[in-house]
């Protein structure tokens, strides 16, 4: 018995101390508590990564938007010094991803070979702590990664939210496969990366065949067949001396990412890990304790519950900001009111950034992380509407695209909803276009902003799992990030006004001049009415003026009519913003104007889709030679003579006359409208309104 025990101890010691040599090592847990070990083989950690007492490597916990790195402390030689060809390597490791909310992982982890251990400048969220938006795809990165990705990012062409991918200097995988493994009899079985269970992964690179294989299994036995194979010569990616390790990140949704053990070998196949001898995950374990313990534990839990609920009610009386059951089902981070109050210094007027479409927007800095945020405060009279809307925050929060303003979280307090967004240092686009702009945007900047907004809108319409109709595209809702990229804000918010209202009188939300004419007839926002508003935006950006300019000459009152008149007489360059001083790319400018006219067509079917718009803007497809008059349809019906400002005036009246009760008109906000002529309107309509629906046809 004693002998057995000491044998076991020796064995355990052997396991917990990494066997180290120049190009191979094995960690069964990452503890380095043995005093007799002189090897410098503690992992180098940075970001949120830490090693727990039992030797478990925790790359991230469920804190939002953090990254964690863990690298082997000394670099490995990855190239044959005579031929400069990359060498073979083999590695396997055991990991577990425990999401904060079941089935909603964020974001994943990656086995990484990198020239540095710090990966400076790398970002969390979809970048997995590996890269950032500006160095994406650059061959000077020298980053090779095998990602275990639990969020589907369309930006990088992810196939689903549970995949393994091979990434070279970029987060767009060169090859990826849904997570799965092969049983011993070669049957393929699905595997859920974010199940919270331990998974072993094997990555083998054979430099003679340039073949990289990835295998997965929930057991200790290495499957015969890989689930992902890729032929690649890593000689160009890897440098002579490289670090190996792991990188992981969380975003708006978060998982704890753990690694339990790791073996690595440059001179042969890496030894597989025996999962049973690795450190175990924290959390609920199987309860084998006698009943009596169970009873005392449950009475303790009961007392705790009593205490907690007493605390709960005291708090409820003191401050009506308690989490209600329905709020717990929601994915994105729920901030506490105190946290946001502190961040915005008590919602001081000094921190006011402006009035957004639905409420006041404050600048804030989150304590702890020092992240700058914008907090939008929306008051809503109907609790029912608020409740339904909050249930949608989960899905809005999952929208991510580099041309959308990212929603970071939310908070509800009585009838107020607080939405926390990424801070956009340069504010909204309208401030740079109309009246006395802060500064004049160059043509290149304008064109880039247009293309960005188009790709953000395409994502909302076509690339996400649901079609999202924005409903309020306008310059005031385009925000500029630190690199002067255009990002759409306020998406999804129009729905707030729909919820909780009488179903027989739904309301049209939008801004005059951007509202597609059919909206007043059908009351039903569609992707095509968004395209109409986008057309108005295009013309605004080129011409540097609003779609409806009350101060302008009568024939210039309606922007699109004025542009069309100039187009007809072939004087199209006259409409371009004079503040550009003639410095613009004529070909691109004509493309934008032409596209603006096409999008402004009164007939929804005549407008291009956002996918076509993006293709035109990217120059992939040439625009049609002939552009039909935006009001051709109305002309046919004899509504107007097809000319000039008359149509505009009539159009404006249409809006008023199509409603039996014009008292429905009300200002949504005193916002941008107050001083600068935007008129936000909200109009009643009696037709049923259905906005988004699963597309189903794309097979997701
Ligand atoms: C490794 O980490 C342990 C615990 O943090 C520390 O006591 C030890 O000195 C470290 N060893 C080296 C070589 O850095
Ligand atoms: C994550 O870890 C950090 C420090 O390592 C800690 O401050 C934070 O509270 C942890 N967060 C959660 C959600 O456990
Ligand atoms: C490097 O390549 C040469 C030629 O193929 C070979 O002879 C040598 O053994 C290789 N060295 C290493 C360290 O693999
Ligand atoms: C290998 O790379 C080194 C340094 O980059 C260079 O000096 C050497 O000429 C290269 N050798 C071959 C065979 O390409
Ligand atoms: C992106 O990362 C690179 C290093 O890979 C760094 O030099 C650069 O400053 C980073 N860019 C941003 C915007 O953080
Ligand atoms: C790639 O990165 C290098 C160094 O960071 C930079 O000089 C170069 O412009 C980048 N190339 C591209 C295409 O972004
Ligand atoms: C892998 O993808 C990157 C970026 O998507 C690309 O630049 C590179 O050429 C690809 N490499 C291979 C070997 O396909
Ligand atoms: C392989 O084994 C699994 C269970 O071990 C079984 O469900 C499956 O039917 C087997 N497949 C074949 C082709 O034998
Ligand atoms: C590395 O490969 C060699 C040769 O196959 C083997 O003897 C050794 O045990 C392996 N080491 C590890 C840590 O996997
Ligand atoms: Mg991916």
From TrEMBL:
Source organism of the structure: Dipteronia dyeriana
Catalytically driven reaction(s): L-threonyl-[protein] + ATP = O-phospho-L-threonyl-[protein] + ADP + H(+); L-seryl-[protein] + ATP = O-phospho-L-seryl-[protein] + ADP + H(+)
Name of this chain's protein: non-specific serine/threonine protein kinase
Source species, domain of life: Eukaryota
Regions that span the bilayer: 291-314
Biased composition (Gly residues): 640-649
Segments forming domain Protein kinase: 347-623
Keywords in alphabetical order: ATP-binding, Cell membrane, Glycoprotein, Kinase, Lectin, Membrane, Nucleotide-binding, Receptor, Serine/threonine-protein kinase, Signal, Transferase, Transmembrane, Transmembrane helix
Biased composition annotated in UniProt, kind: Polar residues: 684-700
